[in-house]
Specification:
Blueprint lengths: L2 H10 L8 E6 L6 H12 L11 E5 L7 H7 L13 H13 L5 E7 L4 E9 L5 E6 L9 H6 L3 E6 L2 H14 L4 H20 L7 E4 H5 L2
Length: 218
């Protein structure tokens, strides 16, 4: 699909009953989920002058990373980014709140890339928002917690990206945030790509597959 077609589809999903639609965007690490979500929200909110008036909100899954302290306690720090290193039930509960609570601001956690830590209360979703776009790796995973996340999504879109380009961008991102070349390459190979294989297996459960190379070429 083209970007204008995605914008039209996103606009059409608003819940006429007064609740919010939730559009999930899923894909392997480095596939461009955040870039697509930000582009959609930016284009869809272009007519509004202030965030408080905007009809679309962006709520990333990354705010539900467990802290490094908790991952250390659980013995999972070396697998950070795997499904079990997120608070999936908390994420599902927030999406459930966002669907029905329209009378006040709902705050979501964000993720600070420099610190590599979740930060509470950094993403405000204002009452005017009619649709939430959320993105993350495991929205289609058939496991406890993640099944509950999927149930809160009106639709889930899967991002398809060339693997060589995806791995290159992912490695560059690790380098930007402080990893050495050797550590970055090892992390991509041993952690990110293991997770990518798990995510690819969920592709057939998506409502829509988005070819990001085609959109980038527009």
């Amino acid at each position: 699909m083209t970007l204008p077609e995605l914008l039209e589809r996103a606009s059409s999903l608003a819940d006429a009953r007064g609740g919010r639609a939730v559009i999930g965007i899923v894909g392997a690490p480095g596939s461009g989920k955040t870039t697509l979500a930000e582009a959609l929200v930016r284009e869809l909110n272009a007519v509004w002058e202030a965030p408080e008036e905007s009809s679309f909100a962006h709520v990333p899954m990354d705010g539900f990373h467990l802290s490094d302290a908790e991952l250390t306690r659980l013995g999972l720090l070396d697998r950070k980014g795997a499904p079990e290193t997120f608070d999936a039930y908390g994420y599902a509960a927030l999406l459930a709140r966002l669907r029905i609570e329209r009378g006040h601001v709902v705050y979501a956690p964000g993720f600070e890339r420099v610190l590599e830590q979740p930060i509470a209360g950094t993403v405000p979703v204002f009452p005017a928002a009619e649709t939430v776009i959320t993105e993350g790796n495991y929205l289609l995973l058939d496991r406890p917690g993640w099944r509950e996340v999927r149930q809160q999504c009106t639709e889930v879109w899967y991002c398809q990206q060339d693997d060589a380009l995806r791995i290159k961008r992912l490695t560059e991102r690790h380098l930007r945030f402080g990893k050495t070349p050797e550590t970055a390459e090892a992390w991509v190979r041993e952690v990110d790509e293991r997770n990518a294989e798990l995510i690819r297996a969920t592709r057939d459960r998506a409502d829509l597959v988005v070819d990001l190379e085609s959109i980038a070429a527009e």
